[in-house]
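Dear colleagues,

I hope this message finds you well. In preparation for our joint manuscript, I am sending the FAD-binding protein (Phytoactinopolyspora mesophila) sequence together with its predicted structure, so that both groups work from identical material. I would be grateful if you could confirm receipt.
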Amino acid sequence: MIDRRPALIICCANAHDVATAIAYARQHAMPLSVRGGGHNVAGTAVPDDGIVVDLSRMREVQVDAARRRVRAQGGATIGDVDRASQAAGLAVPLGLVSQTGIAGLTLAGGIGWLRRAYGTSSDNLAAADVITAAGERLHVSETENPELLWGLRGGGGGLGAVTSFEYHAYPVGPDVSFALVFHTWQDAQSALRNYREWASTAPDEVSSFAILWHAPALDEIPAEYHHTPVVTFAAMHLGDSAEARHDLAPLRDFGNPIADLSDVIPYLDAQRAFDDDYPAHELRYYWKSLYLTGLDDDALGLLTKINEASPSPHSTLDIWQLGGAFSRVGAEETAFGDRSAPFLLGIEANWESPDDDNANIQWARNAHQAMSAYSTGAEYLNFPGFYEEGEQVLRASLGANFERLIALRKQHDPTGLFSRR
Ligand SMILES: Cc1cc2nc3c(=O)[nH]c(=O)nc-3n(C[C@H](O)[C@H](O)[C@H](O)COP(=O)(O)OP(=O)(O)OC[C@H]3O[C@@H](n4cnc5c(N)ncnc54)[C@H](O)[C@@H]3O)c2cc1C
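The corresponding structure tokens are as follows:
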């Protein structure tokens, strides 16, 4: 999907290499991008005719079990951090697909299965090592360069190259309760209404979402439903299995599901549950988002129509349940912005052929436009389309924090070496 030709890709082995690469870009006034996990859907890690500071060989993870801290190099993936953390019985709040990089994820927020228990990845960023455009090497924490820590927590980057991220970690697993329930399209509306009621009272140990999409061809799903529209509810519960059975029952017992794949499974498996839906280099992606003010019946009706109009069976409309710890961080406490919305809508156009680019991108844009009537107007910076709206996406995501973030970027990167948007 991302077809760009950088002039130079510098594969870094350590922070010294990163500093050398930045100095070279500065001296030659070349555009520069850092590549973490390379998963940004807008392709912002790759500039045309510029320099890629590639951190994909910097993936070391160290766990301090006594302090419940996990330190990872800037090129680590979610899977790298999960494996090392779980070996010590810990987990860091990260995202849902294990190949995603922690860097881009954290710098723009980071929401996953632990968001309602422990917040975003960026909320749990305790410290970081940053190399600025001027080549300064800064340690960042609550007490050292705290304004920079504020900006790294969800401001979308552009403040320098982060060579290491240090996170708060929590005892999780080794097993967790994982719910995955599929309903027919005929029952979609009633099942979604039931989900809305359940989500408003579910405890913080649960993070869930509803997916409007087309059923994958899994053995556990009757063949007649394969590739037809369905609604799926997915949830992770961190409590003990009896508590989880009780709390997830309203979701699992409702109506007549066509498949219920819920189980108690290793946390590491749950973290990989959707990996197969995002095969490397096989699909094309265009993702947008909107924070929703609620999920009234009109909004649900519109969402079902949008799913029916999807030109690709791989595309999804994801309704992420928010609240809990996610919502208890003040809008100005971190650069991330307002947390008051009860749901985030992810509009994921995912498709196979370049011939279908226009139809799929237009579907996502139409969905975004139509659903904006039910939104707070804010967007999530990790699902930015192609950044074709430029600064507008950053404003829509950061809200009142926008000016403060821009001032911070100007302070640490006056010539805009790192700023692509
Ligand atoms: C399959 C898939 C699943 C996803 N699932 C989730 C999810 O569950 N939750 C969620 O919140 N998001 C999710 N996302 C979105 C994801 O968080 C963003 O795409 C994020 O940008 C990926 O980070 P990365 O390091 O892999 O990206 P990259 O493309 O490497 O980088 C993204 C941006 O950050 C900059 N950057 C990268 N590394 C550094 C660094 N070390 N220092 C400074 N700047 C850096 C890059 O220059 C670029 O602008 C998913 C994306 C994909 C493709």
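For the figure legend, we might mention the following. The chain is about 25% helix and 25% strand. Residues 33-41, 44-45, 55, 74, 95-97, 100-101, 103-105, 107-112, 157, 161-162, 278, 382 surround flavin-adenine dinucleotide (CB under 6 Å).

With kind regards,
E.M.
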